[in-house]
Amino acid sequence: MHISIESLEKIYPNGKRALSKLNLEIESGMFGLLGPNGAGKTTLMRILVTLLEPTGGRVLVNGMDVKKDRRAIRSMLGYLPQEFKFFSRLTTAEFLDYSAVLAGMRKRADRRRAVEEMLSQVGLFEARDRMANHLSGGMKRRLGIAQALIGNPQIVIVDEPTTGLDPEERIRFRNLIGTMSQRDIVTIFSTHIVGDVSSTCKNVALLAKGELAYCGTPDELIRRAQGHVFRVSVGPDELESVKQRYAVVATIPSESGWDVEIVAREGEDVRGELVQPNLEQAYVYLMGRDGA
Ligand code: ADP
Fold it and tell me: Rounded to an integer, what distance in angstroms lies between the CA atom of residue 248 and that of residue 263?
């Protein structure tokens, strides 16, 4: 599986430029698409799933153009959009059966087997007869990923699936996607939460204002921030001014006031002890504190 994004551009009818000359190569495995709100992640995903036409450039999936080969590409896709609604009159199992029909599974017996297997995998077997729209937030999200994965798609696209989940559900959901996407498929996982991609994604792309700020492994991203993250001890009265001056990413109380961790901007001089960056700090180094 290979997705090739070439000079992709999207300008909405109101003139808003959501993607600018984006180039990106995506291989099999889990791919994290990271960026602040408004970066263009949803726009990119909607183009990939053929729901939106780009205004320039192209996307090739195994050599097929998403604009020209829509049908073929749709049959390879599983998609979990950001806003996902369930029909009110279907149980969990019925909903998944319906999703299997949409995914092209014609034989009832095949569907029954696939639905049961999928319900067990996402931990919803016990909830199979409950109305889908009455499930908890985390369970709905798991049903959402189940409908995206049923029918063995080769490309799975999930848009901000962890938003609104509590930390425990978020970890559970992340692990679920991680283990379920180990076949030779592309899984694209978009999020504005840095922690979502660190443990699960082989490669990540950082989008900012419709442009690519980084593409590579999470480790390489961390390496870029090496030498730019500092720990500094400040007195009780100095904290506010330090916060105003620098990108402060952690504030820890100490005996003499505060130990603060600062991500220095390019060329910025900070006197302090160098610390090994984590992915979140590397993100701040590249994108700035406000993600701009
Ligand atoms: P993200 O998913 O990273 O939050 P989006 O792709 O939703 O980003 O949005 C990218 C930019 O395009 C934002 O500035 C957003 O306001 C704008 N945008 C999104 N959809 C539309 C639309 N239908 N019409 C005009 N502008 C839009």
Answer: 6
